[in-house]
Specification:
Integrase_recombinase_N, 3 strands, globular, mainly alpha, 277 residues, DNA polymerase, domain 1, hpI Integrase, Chain A, 57% helix, 13 helices
Length: 277
């Protein structure tokens, strides 16, 4: 095992947490990822093996164990992806190469989204909202489909706006470290510009709390619940569904929404067909 994986289990997990933090992961993501690796460590120890000596065969055996325990496919995929991130943090990606999963397909439940009337209701509420920040947040979630964790990590420099032509784009960084560029609608460019013009601080974060700190996920969720009576993920589902309904290629929808598995994107096909019908 590489020297980067030297030390006790606690040392290894602490090092992984630092790696995730440096990659800009949220506290909740770091806690979840480290919890997955701790469970993996405990399983290894039950087999008289320690994480510092882990091999590709150990990882494969763990996946088989999870499958034998009848863990859901989505759960196994999440664990697999976390271990993948972990070995990358050790600069040992070969440990995950060719590790097999019996079934990668997930039976997804159709996501809940806003219909056209509900979207218009959200927009009407936004017009009455005196907070330019809140309006910009709602429009960003609705017209880019970003996750709340991604929205909170956005910086002003990630935006490229041309208010005159009402065009723009934003660079979004996912929890897995991948980046994607999303074009911005005219409506969103206008709302973001209004919000930024009202800012008098020199903070790098795009969205700030009332205490002039980078806004937190829970703050956004609370604001949306209190002011708009909606969960942020419903806005994300609406963005994805709308693209599929308009006939945008699934690979493009997956890219814009940050889906690593196109099967996640395919879940929008049945509801799009039903809505058209």
């Amino acid at each position: 095992m590489d020297k980067k994986c030297a030390g006790t289990t606690k040392d290894v997990i602490d090092s992984f947490a630092v790696y995730l933090s440096e990659k800009g992961r949220s506290e909740n993501t770091i806690k979840t990822y480290c919890g997955v690796i701790l469970s993996f460590c405990n399983w290894l120890e039950s087999r008289d093996t320690i994480i510092t000596d882990v091999t590709k065969d150990d990882i494969q055996a763990y996946i088989h164990y999870l499958e034998a325990e009848k863990r859901s496919v989505s759960t196994i995929n999440k664990i697999f992806n976390t271990i993948n991130t972990f070995v990358k943090s050790l600069e040992l990606p070969e440990l995950i190469d060719s590790v097999q999963r019996t079934n990668k397909k997930i039976d997804y439940v159709a996501p809940d989204f806003l219909d056209e009337n509900e979207v218009q209701d959200i927009i009407k509420r936004a017009k009455k909202d005196p907070s330019k920040r809140n309006v910009a947040i709602v429009y960003t979630l609705l017209f880019t489909g970003v996750r709340v964790s991604e929205l909170c990590m956005l910086n002003k420099k990630d935006l490229k706006l041309n208010p005159k032509s009402q065009t723009g784009s934003v660079v979004v960084r996912a929890d897995n470290g991948n980046e994607r560029i999303i074009p911005l609608s005219k409506e969103l460019v206008a709302k973001l510009n209004d919000y930024l013009v009202s800012r008098t601080d020199d903070q790098e974060a795009l969205f700030l709390s009332n205490y002039q700190k980078r806004i937190a996920t829970r703050t956004v969720q609370h604001m949306l619940k209190q002011e708009y009576n909606i969960h942020p993920h419903k806005l994300r589902h609406t963005f994805c569904y709308d693209l599929v309904r308009k006939g945008v290629d699934l690979s493009i929808v997956a890219q814009l929404s940050g889906h690593s598995d196109i099967n996640v994107t395919k879940q929008y096909l049945p509801i799009a067909d039903d809505y058209v019908g």
